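quick one, 266 residues, struct below
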Amino acid sequence: MTRAPEYVAPEYVTYAHMDELHELQVPRSEARGELNFILISHVKELLFRAVIDDLDTARRALVRDDVADTCLALARATRTQRVLVACWESMNGMSVDEFVAFREVLNDASGTQSFAYRALEFVMGNRPQRQVEAAFRDGHAMLRAELLEPSLYDAVLQHLARQGFSVPTECVEKPSAQQHESHPLVEDVWLEIYRHPDRHPDAHRLAEALLEVAYQFSHWRATHLLVVERMLGGKSGTAGTDGAPWLRAINEHRFFPELWTFRTRL
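---
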């Protein structure tokens, strides 16, 4: 009998390590939905990293006061965020009984433990003290490195200050690991930009790009809440989280807060 030739992986497979990638999904049960759950979880993790990369690119462009490159990177991030939102549609294809069939094998595993997701929140500026302390104490190296950098919103405010806008000194010079707190004078800056977009076209363009990033993140959170309610109802989440109630609370948070609040006054 003729021996089959040995498989030689094509360049696409070797370049991107596709064979290794497909070995990473190892279900712990025979339940039909678990493989899809793991696959989509992996996709989301990789997309988090893609968004982080684009937001970091935007941040570095802001250091150069290059608004064009900043907005280009933010637009790429927004496109990827829309794919992240769409990931929940695949999860929604699973019925509640299919999910319950393997939920117990998750043990204490929870999406809240994702260091890539936490890094994304840190990049955008959500740096609550408790999370910052935990990251410095025993967090992933990615989180510790991120907290040594100003957040994207910090970089925006520093850029606006260099352009002559009256951004408060305490917002520009605060420690990088400290969370930005909403400030009425920052709200005044955005109000000025939107009242006179013809005078401040770059700042107006930057604001719109930032708001779209924040909007898509809130869209992702809101869709997450609906999926959890569909799957869990009023059950607690894994790893001791409160499930839907916790997600409802976090849905109230807004990145770049003054970009939302100034609109009441416009």
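The two ends are 81 Å apart (CA to CA).
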